[in-house]
């Protein structure tokens, strides 16, 4: 399968190329809290600039309601882009109106203009096909070609993503090519041993990933809130720990499947059980099959994997050549329950091979992190892009279907995959540890957050109730996924929930290049 890459567009000199980026950065008081997504867009933009194209950058930012809203303006992003590119970048005060038309008409070869937020136009996210088509036609009038490079948004059936790709010659950008390449490395002949580490709270979200990866992996390590559904499936009492009753049978099926396939399923042998769900709850470590025997009895809540388990997990990770990690091992937002997650993060930096971190709430970013405790001990660091489990699942679903990668990145010639319901997340209740941890932290007044822009605030803040999420995105609630993406910093970490402290933690790791992917030449697919 060949991905339509930039070179398929032919000579771009003097051509007006619209680049659909995902510049949905976190903003705090109008200031970009993390410019990872802007940086991630640079390779494609530079390639187009060097090719003499007239570059028209468009993106959404946050979820305005289809009309201009200054707090979601892309202007700060245009400024940052200008700094990073080291050249002037024009900014159009609308998306397809007079300002945009003038700005586009004025670009010189190799010049760049950023259009105002796509979602200031109701047509971008409209549920009505005709409305989206009509807005896409207005966008198309501005350009000669489209480059789709916003990995975090390629699954959205929105005008600039889907309809526009059908109106203009289109190709995937370098960011998408790189992200797909790393995902490919997780699925096509991964170096062995291959270990997948799953945690977090959304068992149902990750099950799809498990079912795809079980035939491929050597080891599956399960921690986080989801471990209790596994323990319960094996017949252990889990007191008041997070448990998805309705997933018990499915999980039993996976356990049996893993055994049959010879996949080493590693469940924690000890668990940190707390008296309640709060940062300062009393807690003790107990055997994983004796959770109800903790001092807290049936009201105990497992909030982290225990030290023995953390050591075993770390050993298994270090001993692997390919590691995919999605979801924290415990309620890492509370320092007392962050040890398991830290141990896994540290071990990942020591992998001599490919390490990929995924997740909407990259545990490397938690505010309670002491970044100095994590550093790369190797000269051949692990790699790492990141995606939410749902994004990975979408990709894996897609891989196993007969759909083309061009459809996956919405350079569609045929039906969009979303039409077949394959790209969106399943709905799920806005529950889970993250939300509870959020609430608890907020209640304590320990962190204040504000969600402005997609990556803004902290993870749970982005978790709109499904109806609202669907509504704002102009999509069928049944298909609406909770956000997540392969957004990238250094081509890597998705930082949805980034505040100042988390950012520092992640940065420390990136600065050590501990989690940076080795350069992978895009392959033929
Ligand atoms: N034992 C636990 N009990 C309750 N919540 C937990 C537990 N362990 C981890 N969590 C919570 O899981 C949350 C993250 O779960 P989630 O499934 O969203 O992971 P993620 O990596 O962000 O997922 P995605 O890949 O979908 O983006 C964290 O906020 C953490 O507090
Ligand atoms: O942050 C993201 O996940 C992407 O930018 C998509 O944003 P959305 O969830 O608002 O469509």
TrEMBL record:
Residues 435-447 have a biased composition (Basic and acidic residues). Residues 416-463 are annotated as: Disordered. Its main location: cytoplasm. InterPro entries: Phosphoglycerate_kinase (IPR001576), Phosphoglycerate_kinase_CS (IPR015911), Phosphoglycerate_kinase_N (IPR015824), Phosphoglycerate_kinase_sf (IPR036043). PROSITE patterns: PGLYCERATE_KINASE. Pfam families: PGK (PF00162). Its EC number is 2.7.2.3. PANTHER family: PHOSPHOGLYCERATE KINASE, PHOSPHOGLYCERATE KINASE 1, CHLOROPLASTIC-RELATED. Monomer. This is Phosphoglycerate kinase. It comes from Microbacterium suwonense. The lineage of its organism: Bacteria, Bacillati, Actinomycetota, Actinomycetes, Micrococcales.
């Amino acid at each position: 399968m060949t991905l339509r890459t930039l070179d398929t567009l032919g000579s771009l000199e003097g051509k007006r190329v619209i680049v659909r980026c995902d510049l949905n950065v976190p903003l705090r008081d109008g200031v970009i809290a993390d410019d990872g997504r802007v940086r991630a867009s640079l390779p494609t933009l530079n390639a187009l600039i060097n090719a003499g194209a007239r570059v028209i950058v468009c993106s959404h930012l946050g979820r305005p309601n289809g009309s201009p809203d200054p707090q979601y303006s892309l202007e700060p992003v245009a400024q940052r882009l200008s700094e990073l590119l080291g050249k002037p970048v024009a900014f159009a005060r609308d998306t397809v109106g007079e300002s945009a038309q003038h700005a586009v008409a004025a670009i010189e070869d190799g010049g760049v203009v950023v259009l105002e937020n796509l979602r200031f136009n109701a047509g971008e996210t409209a549920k009505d096909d005709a409305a989206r088509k009509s807005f896409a036609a207005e966008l198309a009038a501005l350009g000669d070609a489209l480059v789709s490079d916003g990995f975090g948004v390629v699954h959205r059936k929105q005008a600039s993503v889907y309809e526009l790709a059908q109106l203009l010659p289109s190709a995937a950008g370098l960011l998408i090519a790189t992200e797909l390449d790393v995902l490919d490395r997780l699925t096509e002949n991964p170096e062995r041993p291959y270990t997948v580490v799953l945690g977090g709270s959304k068992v149902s979200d990750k099950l799809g990933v498990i079912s795809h990866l079980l035939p491929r992996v050597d080891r599956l390590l399960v921690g986080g809130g989801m471990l209790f559904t596994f323990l319960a499936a094996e017949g252990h009492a889990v007191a008041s720990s997070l448990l998805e009753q309705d997933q018990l049978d499915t999980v039993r099926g996976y356990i049996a499947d893993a055994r049959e396939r010879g996949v080493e399923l590693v469940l924690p042998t000890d668990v940190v059980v707390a008296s309640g769900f709060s940062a300062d709850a009393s807690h003790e470590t107990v055997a994983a099959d004796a959770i109800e025997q903790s001092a807290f009895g049936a009201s105990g809540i497992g909030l982290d994997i225990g030290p023995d388990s953390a050591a075993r997990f770390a050993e298994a990770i270090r001993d692997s050549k390919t590691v995919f990690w999605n979801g924290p091992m415990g309620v890492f937002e509370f320092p007392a329950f962050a040890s398991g997650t830290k141990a896994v993060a540290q071990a990942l930096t020591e992998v001599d091979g490919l390490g990929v971190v995924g997740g909407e709430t990259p545990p490397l970013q938690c505010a309670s992190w002491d970044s100095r405790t994590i550093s790369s001990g190797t000269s051949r660091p692990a790699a790492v892009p990141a995606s939410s489990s749902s994004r990975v699942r979408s990709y894996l679903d897609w891989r196993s279907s007969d759909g083309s990668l061009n459809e996956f990145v919405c350079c569609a010639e045929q039906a969009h995959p979303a039409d077949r319901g394959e790209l969106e997340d399943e709905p799920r209740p806005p529950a889970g540890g993250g939300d509870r941890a959020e609430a608890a932290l907020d209640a304590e007044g320990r962190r204040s957050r504000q969600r402005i822009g997609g990556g803004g605030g902290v993870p749970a803040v982005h978790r709109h109730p499904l109806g609202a999420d669907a509504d704002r995105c102009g999509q069928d609630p049944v298909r609406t996924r909770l956000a997540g993406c392969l957004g990238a910093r250094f081509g890597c970490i998705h930082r949805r929930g980034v505040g100042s402290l988390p950012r520092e933690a992640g940065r420390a790791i990136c600065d050590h290049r501990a989690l940076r992917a080795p350069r992978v030449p895009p392959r033929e697919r």
